[in-house]
C-alpha cells in the first residue's frame, strides 16, 4: 500500500462518513429556519454500501474514519456499522461526532462495537440558550450526562465542540474555559463558518484571536499537544488546568494546506472539500455493481479533485448542501 495523496502532495488518510442527513436538533448555524429537504430513505447508503466504500478507501490508504450526520445516533443499528468498520484491517481509528442527546443511552454499546473516541457538540451550558440554539426543547442536561457516560465507558478523549457566535453564546467562553481548569474537559472553540442558506451568518463571526484575548483573563494559555489525533485544532492549557482548550480557525487562519480528508455524504456522494460543492457519485455505481477496482478509481478521482483551499474569504459559500447534510 503506497497511500493516497492529492495533486498538492497532501497525504489523504481520513474519511468522514455522514450516516444520515436527519437530526433531532435544528441548530441555527447548521440548519436554516426554513428547514432542509430530507433525502428519501432509499437514497441513503446502506451499511453494507458504506462498508464497501470504507474497505476500498482503506485499501488505498485511509486509516481513520469519523461517523457524523445529521445526528449519527438517530440512525438505527449504528453499533453494527462500527463493528463492520472495525473489522477492516487498515482502519485503526473510528470516532464519532454527535450532539450528545442520545449518548448516555448508546455509549457502552458503541464502545464495545469498536468506537474509540467521541466529539460532542455543546454550544452552551444554559438551558434557555440550548433551546434557542437548537430550536428545540431538548435538555442540555441530557448532553452533559452523555459526556459523563461516554467518559465512564472509556471513550477517550471526549472532545467538546463549541461554535462560538457573537451575541449568542460568546458570553460563555470563560465558563467553558473554567470547566477545563476544574475538570478534564477538552473544549474546542470553533469559528463560525457561513453556509448558503443560513440566517444572518456574517453577524455571528468571532475570530479566534478575539476569543484568545478574552480567555487570557483566566491566565496564560500554554501551548500543548493534543491527547489524540492531528486535526486542525491548536491546543493550549490554562495554568494548572486538568483539561485543554483547542481553537479551530477555518476562517481567520485556514488549515487547508494540511487537509487530509474526504467526506462521504449519506446519499453516497464523495466530497473532496467541506467548503466546495464538487462531489463524485458513488451510490449509482455501487448499485450498478461496480468492481472494487472501479470504486477505487472513483475515490482516487475525488482525491485528485481536492482544491488547494476553500474560498470563503473571497465570498464563495457552498450552496448545494447545508452543513447538516455534509456532517461538518
Ligand atoms: N449532529 C452531530 C453534531 O451535532 O455534532 C454531527 C453533525 S454536525 C453538522 C458536525 C459539526 O459541524 C458540529 O461539531 C458542529 O458544531 C459543526 N458545524 C455545523 N455548522 C457549522 C458552522 N456553520 N460553523 C462551524 N461549525 C459548524
CATH superfamily descriptor: Aldolase class I
Number of helices: 10
State the order of secondary-structure elements, H for helix, E for strand.
Answer: EEEHEHEHEHHEHEHEEEEEEHHH
- Count of domain modules: 1
Question: CA-to-CA gap between the ends?
Answer: 29 Å
The rounded Rg comes to 19 Å
Q: Largest sheet, order of strands side by side?
A: 9-10-11-8-7-6-5-4-3-12-13-14
CATH T-level topology = TIM Barrel
Average of pLDDT: 94
CATH C-level name: Alpha Beta
User: Overall 3D geometry?
Assistant: globular
Report the uncertain regions. none
What percentage of the residues does DSSP assign to strands (E)? 15-25%
SS-derived structural category: alpha/beta
Ligands and ions found: S-adenosylmethionine
CATH architecture grouping: Alpha-Beta Barrel
Secondary structure: helix percent: 25-40%
Sheet having the most strands: 12 strands, mixed
Number of strands: 14
Would you give an account of this structure?
The structure is a single chain. This protein is α/β, with parallel strands linked by helices. The chain has one domain: Aldolase class I (TIM Barrel), CATH 3.20.20. The chain contains ten helices and 14 strands. The chain has helices at 47-60, 78-86, 103-113, 127-134, 140-152, 173-182, 208-215, 283-287, 292-304, 323-326, and strands spanning 4-5, 11-12, 14-18, 64-68, 93-98, 117-121, 158-164, 186-191, 222-224, 234-237, 244-248, 261-264, 269-271, 280-281. It has a twelve-stranded mixed β-sheet. Strands 1-2 form a two-stranded antiparallel sheet. Strand 1 (4-5) and strand 2 (11-12) form a beta hairpin. Helix 1 (47-60) crosses helix 9. The model has no long low-confidence stretch (mean pLDDT 94). S-adenosylmethionine (SAM) binds next to strand 5, strand 7 and helix 10.
